[in-house]
Every structure is written in C-alpha cells, then in structure tokens.
Design a protein that fits this description.
By secondary structure, this protein is mainly alpha-helical. The chain contains 15 helices and 7 strands.
C-alpha cells in the first residue's frame, strides 16, 4: 500500500473533527466567497497591481463601458459578454480595405459622442495594438469574475489574425520607440549642462541605461539606500518588486564607471542620504522630497532628445531598448543581457538584440573592400 492509499483510507473520527461553532460564527458556503472575502481578494489584486497597469486597465474598462452603452443601449458589467460583442468591437475600431476605400463600422455620431464623453481623444479608428490591449483587459475582467471570456472564441482569433495580416499588407507597421544606442545617448548626455537639472538628468539617463535598461517604474522606485558602493567606480543597486518579478526579493545589479560618477555628483548636489533617488525639482533648482513619476521620466528623455536635435519617437522605453540593442552591437551574450534587464521571455528581447547584432554582421558586408566587376574598390559614398 502506497502512502497515498494509506492517506485515502484514513478514518476521520468525531474526535479529530473540530467543535462546530455555528452558534458563535455563521458558517460559510464552501461553493462561494462571502462579501468580506470578495472585498479582501479585490484588495490583494489592487495592491499587487502596478500603478501604471491599474491606470491602463481602468482606462480600457471606462472605454468598454462607454462604447457598450452607446452601441447596445445597455449598462456594461451586468454579466459576461458574448463573442459577437468582442467581434463587433474589432469591426468598429479597425480599418479594412473596401472598394470605396478604408472603412470601419463605428457610426460617426457614436464616435463623436465617445470623444465628447472623453472616452476617446479624437474620432477615427484605433491602432491594432490598442484594440488588442482592450480585448486583453476584457478577458482579464471576465476571468476575475469567473466568467468565460469572449476573447477565447476561435472566430474572434481568426478575425484578429486576418486583420493583422491585412494591416501589414497595407504597410501599417507596429510603432516602436526609437532605441537610444550609444551615439544618441551620448548626444543627450551632452545637453546636461543646465545646473542641478542637468546633474539629475545625466544621473538618471546613465542609471536607467547602464544599469541594465531599467523601466521607468523601476527608476522612480529606487531609493538612496538601495545603492551600495563597492569602490570608487563600482556600485551595486537593489531592485525590489518589478513588472516581471513580484516576489519582493531584492536583487542586486552592477553599476560601473561613468554611471557611478554621475550618481555621486547627483547625490552630492542634492545632498541626499535617504528617500527617493530621483526627485522633482522646484523653482530655482531646489530639490523636492517627492520622487519623479514615470511620465516625468519619459518627458526628461524626450526633452534631452529634443535639445540634442535627435529625430525619432523618444520615450523612457528608448533607454531600455537602446541598452539591449547596443549590447547586441557589442556582442554581449543574450543570457547576460536578460540577467540585467530581467526580461522573462526571449521573444520580447530578441528583436532589439538582433537589431544590434546585425549592424555588425559580417553577412551585411561580404564584399567589403573587394574590387567590383569593373575592377574598382567599393567605397562608401560621401
């Protein structure tokens, strides 16, 4: 007889059962959570969800509520939605090619009303990525309620796959932020000569980039006490909870050289010994007590790119993608890069990594300085 067999044959006698407290406490229904437990579960979910994620989910659900009420004349949230609603959402918001030109199914009057209500910034179709995000939020919302999600329907999946191919065929590309590889990063750093603001921005740019391509949420969460000097040019900093690691276990990452010197200059200029590392500045360069927000980090990157005269679509993510791309250019192994960035999936980081490695690929320059068919050496045009 195995241990499991012995376990399943154990007799639970009356002596081993606890005394019933029905008179003292109301008994719970084992099939459902009571109201207090539902509230506690919701509080756990809210507390464990990053602020940026919570805001994007709330925005998506507000849009679903407005669109559904206007489209169907019913309140959103009374129960699970059928797959036809999710399919209508796709047809309403993604453009398709017709004989008369590009079209989508959202009635103009309804579209204008959504803009009037503040649910949309401007009339017109939505990007494929936006539609995909809102469908993902709808799926999450259904699963949290214990309902089957309409996004699991195979007809919707087929429609989305064909819509993506149709957009790609029309040349609609997925927009990505410009990667801040070494050259544009140096150009941004060269603009950081404007007093205390420049000292802070230089430290922030180098920390986020050299520290492993940190996300903006990770940058603003760093505290002064998370820094640990090893010597004059080598420090460690500790990450806690992040987007992909919610365990709360502190993981130390290295900082070296120019990034360390920039951080030391910022700590000295701001006279910081504790609290948030990167802070807001007030009039006259006075250092505030509150941490920067993620949006402010993005604006710092955009401002420095603008001051440097750099073309492109810049954001906080430019530092993360730029770090991975530059690491690929310099031949850093993918495993080492992922250990620093804490990407969990290879597919996510691989696009940036390949973009960097291909820039130095021998396959891109097989002819090199060999003579061409006319006997002249190939030269780069000036």
């Amino acid at each position: 007889m195995t241990k499991m067999d012995k376990f399943t044959t154990v007799n639970v006698s009356k002596k081993t059962q606890p005394v019933l407290l029905a008179d003292a406490l109301p008994a719970l229904d084992p099939a459902v959570l009571d109201a207090a437990s539902i509230r506690a579960a919701e509080e756990f979910v809210a507390d464990g969800t990053p602020a940026n994620t919570a805001r994007s989910y709330a925005s998506a659900l507000r849009y679903w509520a407005a669109w559904y009420a206007l489209r169907y004349g019913q309140p959103f949230g009374d129960g699970p939605l059928p797959a036809a609603v999710a399919m209508q959402f796709v047809l309403d918001h993604l453009q398709r090619q017709t004989k008369a030109g590009l079209a989508h199914e959202l009635p103009p009057a309804l579209d204008a009303r959504l803009v009037e209500l503040g649910a949309k910034a401007q009339p017109g179709p939505l990007a494929y990525a936006t539609v995909g995000h809102r469908l993902a939020v709808l799926a999450k919302w259904h699963r949290l309620h214990g309902w089957d999600s309409p996004t699991d329907d195979h007809r919707l999946k087929t429609l989305l796959a064909k819509a993506r191919k149709a957009q790609a065929r029309r040349g609609v590309a997925v927009r990505k932020k410009t990667a801040a590889v070494a050259e544009p990063l140096q150009a941004m750093l060269a603009t950081c000569t404007d007093g205390v603001r420049g000292v802070r921005d230089r430290a922030l740019l180098l920390f986020a980039w050299s520290g492993g391509g940190r996300r903006r949420s990770e940058v603003v969460a760093i505290e002064v006490t998370d820094l640990r000097p090893l010597d004059a040019t080598t420090w460690l900093y500790a990450l806690g909870r992040t987007k992909t690691d919610t365990s709360g276990v502190r993981r130390e990452k290295p900082l070296k050289g120019e990034a360390v010197l920039a951080l030391q200059a910022w700590l000295d200029a701001a006279q910081l010994t504790e609290g948030p590392l990167f802070r807001r500045l007030h009039r006259g360069g006075r250092v505030g007590a509150t941490a920067l927000t993620g949006d402010q980090v993005a604006r710092i990157v955009q401002r420095r790119a603008r001051l440097a005269g750099l073309p492109g679509d810049w954001a906080a993510h430019s530092l993360r993608s730029g770090f991975v791309t530059e690491a690929g250019r310099q031949g850093v192994p993918l495993g080492e890069i992922m250990a620093l960035t804490e990407h969990k999936g290879v597919a996510t980081v691989m696009g940036y990594f390949q973009a960097g490695t291909l820039l130095n690929s021998r396959g891109a320059d097989l002819l090199g300085d060999r003579p061409n068919s006319a006997g002249r050496a190939l030269k780069t045009p000036t």
